[in-house]
Here is the input.
Amino acid sequence: MSRFVTPRIQEKSQVYYAQSSQNNKEHPFKDAAERVAKYIPGEIVSGYILVMGIINAVASDDPLKVYFAWSIFVLGLIATPIYLIKVCRPMPSQRPQVVIATIAFVLWAYALGGPFKLEPVESYYREWIGAVLVASYTWMVGLFYIPEENTNES
Here is the structure.
């Protein structure tokens, strides 16, 4: 299974739906679910969870905890598009998915807490807002964004 959603192809008046691992014309919700899974930068989020777990184990009075937490967030933010472009090598029609995944990383990082639970921004952090944002964004992008590749250049 490819890391990116394969664009649907538009030829004249015919439209073929996005192909994931197989043709899902008869199961549009299965296709949407596969797109949702591919729009989440799971590789980066899992690394973020691992490192933030280590940082969360550090004593709360350690002044370096906040700096390392924010550094890991920024590292994940930078690593997401670099990883997706260098390792997954998206086709030009799949490039918007890099932006979608990078935004998804930010929302996942907020939902998981990390540096947002620490001073000086802890008073603005609400766990439920992160959960609602992640769920809404992932759901809406999976339902409404379908990459297209136009084969007639005229």
Q: What stands out?
A: The radius of gyration is 18 Å. The chain is about 55% helix and 5% strand. The chain has one domain: 8-150. The first helix runs from residue 28 to 39.
